[in-house]
Fold this sequence. Notes:
Helix content of chain A: 55-70%
CATH superfamily of chain A: lambda repressor-like DNA-binding domains
Oligomer: homodimer
Number of strands of chain A: 0
Distance between the termini of chain A: 19 Å
Order of helices and strands of chain A: HHHH
CATH architecture of chain A: Orthogonal Bundle
Structural class of chain A: mainly alpha
Number of helices of chain A: 4
Number of domains of chain A: 1
Largest sheet of chain A: none
Radius of gyration of chain A: 11 Å
Largest interface: A-B, 22 and 22 residues
Amino acid sequence: MAKARIRFGISVRQRRNQLEWSQEELAERSGLHRTYIGQVERGVRNISIDNMEALAEALMLPLAELLRSDS
Amino acid sequence: MAKARIRFGISVRQRRNQLEWSQEELAERSGLHRTYIGQVERGVRNISIDNMEALAEALMLPLAELLRSDS
DNA sequence: GTGTGACTTCTAGTCCGTA
DNA sequence: ATACGGACTAGAAGTCACA
């Protein structure tokens, strides 16, 4: 249990670093709060599908890509 | 917006029908409530990642599979 | 630029019923 | 076997001050 949100958080962070964005920049682009982004990346938040989609769109990746078991 | 939860709901329903399970059976296997399953399948609920994972495990599919754009 | 705890508001999620 | 409604409780959303 709670494996998916760990993987998701790691994927978001990897992609954000790849784009060389700060959490603050991703926050602005996704419409979410800066601290919330950080919490999601660390897997401490049980994020909902709507917010996952907002992040995926901001990161310009399909949502399924952020949940792949390998990555 | 809210496209992902529609796709997710459809995928869950398709897979459940494929397994020939009732909503009630999926509810028992996933540990979620029967009425909630129905709402998720219809896309009226903004489900969290932990529960998405619970459904994916009950349905014996990787979570990413339930979110694919095509399917 | 990020991590963390705490806080309030709002909705996810349950449980009852009826159809 | 599923949809839908109301009422309720647990927990996510969203924000902040401070490290």
